[in-house]
Amino acid sequence: MAKQERAVRTRRIFLEAAAEVFDEYGYDAASISVILERAQLTRGALYFHFTSKEALAQGVLDEAVTTLGFSPQTYKVQEWIDLALLLAYRLPREPLLSASIRLSVDPKSRSLFSTRWPDWIQLSLDLLATAKERGELQQHADPATIARLLVGAWTGVQLVSSSLPQQPDLVGEVSELFALILPGITVPAVLTKLDISPRRPERLLAEARPEQDSPALHEGSAPRS
Amino acid sequence: MAKQERAVRTRRIFLEAAAEVFDEYGYDAASISVILERAQLTRGALYFHFTSKEALAQGVLDEAVTTLGFSPQTYKVQEWIDLALLLAYRLPREPLLSASIRLSVDPKSRSLFSTRWPDWIQLSLDLLATAKERGELQQHADPATIARLLVGAWTGVQLVSSSLPQQPDLVGEVSELFALILPGITVPAVLTKLDISPRRPERLLAEARPEQDSPALHEGSAPRS
């Protein structure tokens, strides 16, 4: 393994260990020694990549706005739906993503690092504004309001569903949320063409190539069947 | 002041002090001494009412499902909307309410005390199930799904809006959320009669009598103009 490749892998191991520990203990109670124990690597290796707990938390949050599995669609509204469904599918499977929500709702961590919600709102707004220009949305639909409210609604649906005894499946919940909202914002001709199936994100991820993360949002060209 | 009246007042002072401290520090970092300092009452008085930090947190959560300002309406959907708007109006003004959200999103506190979300979901479900029976909802609308998703959406919209730099007004946000969702779930004849104005909760509270808290949900008869 090349030196640089090993460094990338080591960095990733620390981020994932830190994410798990932040997720379990919260930011305040998370300690470097527990993170080291989880990562099973040396303190020296850690400090080469991250000089403090703060740097680890920032590293976790930096990984949180991700568009893996995303690919261009006929309708911009579909791309917006895809972002939300993909994140719902990946979150319970990836500690880095659940830790970033945990850090965002933790007021101490939030005051130190802020949250990634504004980035998600901006990403949604870009897609919805184009959708509006293309006539996919109803006249009265305001892209900025919808973008902001849906990032909130998505986050709360995740929090509440994860706390309920029967723990409803997050992708199913987000799909139901779109079923409630889309009739009020998209034009009927587009509405009938949209796919909000809970099985969609798994299919999108299977079709995506690994190198297709974030930059692909504006440049991606993965084939869609 | 009668002895019992004084005891009720003292208990309330401790709950509000605890709520402020939980809200600022989180459950783990909150300490009895800071709560005492805030309440400006003696340790003996505290222990007469609450034997531990756990008991204080439980007391705060017990106050969190509240229907002050709620009164019977022509449409059950309107009563459901009123619950959400009233809470949105009161939350930024009442530390007991914001602390209960803080305790619900804090995983440590949540594992100790669970959350009040199931109660809110049940309250919403009762109203929506009756609305459905009365023909206020569209055929495909499922009261259980809508009740669950809206409690989540409301919570997340509160969390995200409170974190944004421009801090949009919570009542305005919740009103916009209903504007997105109602066209997809209520029948058109009812939709036109619903009031989701951000100024509604303030008016409802002004009309409510103080003794009209929780029990009024099923028995209330406050006059509506």
Commentary on this structure:
Chains A, B: Residues 31-50 bind DNA. Chains A, B: GO terms for molecular function: DNA-binding transcription factor activity; transcription cis-regulatory region binding. The structure is a homodimer of 225-residue chains. The first copy, chain A, has 225 residues and is mostly helical. The first copy, chain A, is built from 13 helices and no strands. The A-B interface holds A 24, 26, 28-29, 102, 104-108, 110, 114-115, 117-118, 145-146, 148-149, 151-161, 163-165, 168, 173, 176-177, 179-185 and B 24, 26, 28-29, 102, 104-108, 110, 114-115, 117-118, 145-146, 148-149, 151-161, 163-165, 168, 173, 176-177, 179-185.
Radius of gyration of chain A, taken over Cα atoms and rounded to an integer in Å: 19 Å
CATH topology of the largest domain in chain A: Tetracycline Repressor, domain 2
What is the CATH architecture annotation of the largest domain in chain A? Orthogonal Bundle
User: How many E strands of chain A?
Assistant: 0
Bin the helical content of chain A: 55-70%
Ranges of chain A where pLDDT stays below 50 over 5 or more residues in a row are 214-225
**How do the SSEs of chain A run, as a string of H and E?**
HHHHHHHHHHHHH
- Annotation field: number of helices of chain A: 13
Q: Return the CATH class of the largest domain in chain A.
A: Mainly Alpha
Mean pLDDT over all positions of chain A: 88
Question: What would you call the quaternary organization?
Answer: homodimer
Q: Structural class, judged by helices and strands of chain A?
A: mainly alpha
Distance between the termini of chain A: 36 Å
Major sheet description of chain A:
none
Total number of domains of chain A: 2
Keywords (chains A, B): DNA-binding, Transcription, Transcription regulation
Region (Disordered) (chains A, B): 203-225
Biased composition (Basic and acidic residues) (chains A, B): 203-212
InterPro entries (chains A, B): ArpA-like, DNA-bd_HTH_TetR-type_CS, Homeodomain-like_sf, HTH-type_TetR-like_transc_reg, HTH_TetR, Tet_transcr_reg_TetR-rel_C_sf
